[in-house]
Amino acid sequence: MSQPPLSGQPAKILTTFSGLVPPGSASESRLFDADRVDWNVDWQTALRRAIRSTNQLRQLLGLPLESDSRDSNEFGTFVPLEFLRRIQKGDARDPLLRQVLVTSDEQLQHSGFVSDPVGDGDALATPGLIHKYDGRVLLIASGACAVHCRYCFRREFPYGEFGGQRQKWEAAIQYVRSHPDVHEVILSGGDPLTLVDENLFELLDRIDAIGHVRRIRIHSRFPIVIPQRITPAFCDHLSSLRSRVWFVIHANHASELDATCLSRIGLLVEAGIPVLNQSVLLRGVNANEQSLVDLMTRLVDHRIQPYYLHQLDRVRGTKHFEVPIQHGLELMRRIRARLPGYAVPTYVTEQPGQPSKTPLDRI
């Protein structure tokens, strides 16, 4: 059945640059004190009060300040307090801090590290809709994120070049409707959960109304970074869809999975929504046997299926995170010897032009 076009109102997205605590404010003059923070806030407030200054982040954690500014680029610091509270004060090597701290390493140029390492630009079917693989498409539902991960492979993605959000969605929906071989739509970004429920549900409903779409997959860091984004109402709507919904979280270290985070993910699990996890193998974060075993064990203990362990996508400014593939293969051999098969992720890389992710431990 033909569906009416999405309403003309712009999608409500909480951008990563509005209403944030400015550098030099009173909150910067002391170490971060979790007891002084009101944690009973909604996810929108959590975004608005996030840290967006490298030196502010350093000062709150009791780390030396940097004399030069490293937040002038378009992919500057953005760390919600909900994630900050899990970082150990005074420890510059904390694996969670390593994922979000801007460093001078990002300014170094290295051969083979490019703006679009996975070939997203060459696979655009419509503005913001990527069609790489048989039977499925990926929709960039939003260009905003809950946190700025320094290893992000879309850190240079030209989100602003595709016109209005609604216009982009309409073109994507028309494309999916006209391609009956597309059975799965993946919502990614950025992070699709930066959309308020009203607009996210409208988008989901429009996709769900396309009869040949059987699955909708949602990729998000929100359950890890700002867990309160996952609510009973959100889970109820996902459960009400005709299409089967699969939810993919992104966690790289067991310390990210605290009790609050796991209880919110538990809402998805209890609603009957399969939850998978994908990680990136990162030097200084999880590139050792015990860290990977701890992460995978914590996931399966809470009914979260380890899915992929990604080799780093070689986007500019991330070489300091790269782990040699041979070391990754050795780590896979070791964790396979310690974990049940269902707890072992598939170690993969993404190569532009290939028909699927490439499993590294099968070549």
Explain the overall architecture.
It catalyses: L-lysine = D-beta-lysine. Keywords: 4Fe-4S, Iron, Iron-sulfur, Isomerase, Metal-binding, Pyridoxal phosphate, S-adenosyl-L-methionine. The chain contains 11 helices and 10 strands. 28% of the residues lie in helices and 13% in strands. Strand 6, helix 9 and strand 7 form a beta-alpha-beta unit. With 363 residues, the protein is an alpha/beta fold. It has a domain at 26-107. The longest helix has 14 residues, at 325-338. A 10-stranded mixed beta sheet has the order 1-2-3-4-5-6-7-8-9-10. Helix 10 packs across helix 11. The protein has helices spanning 43-48, 54-60, 81-84, 95-100, 165-177, 197-208, 222-225, 232-240, 259-270, 289-301, 325-338; strands spanning 124-126, 129-130, 136-142, 184-189, 215-220, 244-250, 275-280, 305-310, 346-349, 358-359.
Could you list some keywords that capture this structure?
single chain, 363 residues, alpha/beta, 10-stranded mixed beta sheet, 10 strands, disordered N terminus
